[in-house]
Amino acid sequence: MKTLIRVSFALMTLSMVMSSCVNNDNSNKGALSSNAAEKVYVAPGEHDDYYAFISGGFSGQLAVHGLPSGRLFKVIPVFSVDPEKAYGFNEETKPMLNTSHGFVPWDDSHHPDLSQTEGVIDGRWCFINANNTPRIARISLETFETEEIIEIPNSAGNHSSSFVTENSEYVVAGTRFSIPIPQRDMSIAEYKGNFKGSLSFIKVDPENGHMNIEFQVLMPGFNYDLAHPGRGASHGWMFFSTYNTEEANSLMEVNASQNDKDFIAAINWKKAEEYIKAGKFRTVSSEYAHNVYDESTHTATSTMKSEVRVLDPADLPGLVYFMPTPKSPHGCDVDPSGEYIVGSGKLAAALTVHSFSKMLKAIEEENFDGEAYGIPILSYEGTLAGTVNQPGLGPLHTEFDDKGNAYTTFFISSEVVKWKLGTWEVIDRKPTYYSVGHLMIPGGNSRKPFGKYVLAMNKITKDRYLSTGPEVCQSAQLYDISGEKMELLLDFPTIGEPHYAAGCPADLIHPKTKKIYKLEDNKHPYAAISESEAKVVRDGKNVHIYMTMIRSHFAPDNIEGVKQGDRVYFHVTNLEQDYDVPHGIGMIGANTSELLIMPGQTETFVWEPKKVGVWPFYCTDFCSALHQEMQGYVRVSPENSNIELSWTLDGE
Amino acid sequence: MIALLGLLTACGDKEGGNKAKDKSNETVVNADPMQNKGIGPIKELILPATIDEELAKTGEANYVVKCSACHKANKKYIGPAPAGIMERRTPEWIMNMILNPEGMIAEDPIAKQLLIEYNGAPMANQNLTEEEARSILEYFRTLK
Question: What is the pTM of this model?
């Protein structure tokens, strides 16, 4: 053992010597320096320390990566169909993508956030917003499946979403575009004063996570960009950044950049609850879909709702205040103590930091600087805690570590800047490659950040990887922030545009994940939970096959009596009860290729046979040594034939 | 250092290998099916003289859901028929085959032989509890 220690010490010294050589090389390949490779290396069979839930941007999905390795584990389908998971293709999940605009197979996912208890990440759910057709989804972190999607009425470009309060009381969803509320046929030129923006507070049931739009705050016709909840002393407040306080409706890049200051809107949602209780709301008619996936039936249902409660701040004092914030702020980020609210004015030379306690004082002293549509504007100096001067170009978003530091991304100057809360001095800056948008520190939107890594999510990749033609991969970069100076450790590719992410230590989730669905809990109406329940039933033109699968056969596997013009439902139950033994099924000519069915689960696809003949189906997932034997046949007869429906397995 | 670690593990393996050899010698001795208790959590199981009908009924229900896709009571199917198994195997072996199929197929001489006989279709682990497996065993006692 002594020899072992001596040898390893010698090796360490050697590697230190070697890496210090590299340190002298001032190239932009920061990850070569020191022992970056070791810091991100997760040996075969070992696990990462953190989960990172990275939005899939325009893919509409949510990607699960491990940190520090950056490895991709799963793409959770949320707002888009996904053939790999049969999401939106099997009959059970189609209702998940229903909206008041009909079935929408593809959306744009932006900002994931994790549920919290007492301001700390609890590892129960991940929420994420659909930007295009406004919706919020809730994903179970036991099954890593989308369990619920609620459409947001009176909203358009659902961007200042989804952000969770510190006991997951609410997840908020703010509109980016203001629109006529209720929607109506009117001239666009009459925007100013007539269009409105809605900020939705969606109540989360603490037992099962089920979501319900509790109320909407009807705001002036600005654009609402991002939001973050108060915490600690500021719990009960929600902060939204605004731009286009000019209320322009054309050539926005010029016309929405005229005012020196826009606002951060502070919403007192505890006050809102009082007003709701006192009946000071209006009920507005608006159609929106609420889609819930039931784990016991393995099936989603979609319900159309018709009204929502609306609060008008002009009539309800104390509900909303505006804090002037320079130049079209994007990020609106609250530090772990809840005292500081950082506004990142995209076009400003400085970062603006508001103080929550000063805000309360300004409200109390009525230190106002006018009003907008009946909402008091607080004095800029009255709420100002400080500014971070000349930190970079194009500030975008800030997160926090557990040592009193803040980290802000700068889109135009492509860098992450570390600065100190309270003194507002810049401590370090590191380049990103290139044009960073959001960043993420695990727990960075909570009272308890885990300040070991920051993940920067880039908008442009250019030359960082082997070229794949004009369209190159999307990417993120990982920095070690455990020391005084940040250190770039890793580049890794991501799916879609990695818009924003949420992360937490793996042990909050990994030990609680589900391994199989128990057969005895399967309440799917068409499940066959043993081979003896396998059957085929005709109901007019509909034929329902109750099929089972286990290594390595289907029951039944020979079916006759199906006719041209039938709609054949394959309801397939996987009878396995062991971890990671899924089976797949594909049927020639069906509009699906593979339903991958987990142990204990039932999934359904529809086949409309168009041609007479005998057509095979087979297991599409390599399940066992006898996988190639896992197959069957369906005989399709002419519409007028009198072949009786029959089904067998091994002649029985 | 990695090389050194490798050496250390290699040593470990060697030791393990020797042990395994000893064990396999032992199992060869126990190859008499009515002596072999198999490999798994069940070391000793003494059955009462009379059959617990209630338990056997529960066992049949469990068997239908978890086992019948591959086993038919009186007919060779994907796997062997359980009828008469009490005359062919020890109760411990049956329980271990249900509860630890991977370990049995890898190490138990009878299970290894059965795997070959049954076209290499390994018995699935259906994650039964000891209690559930015991009920199925009771059901097997009722099969003629």
Answer: 0.89
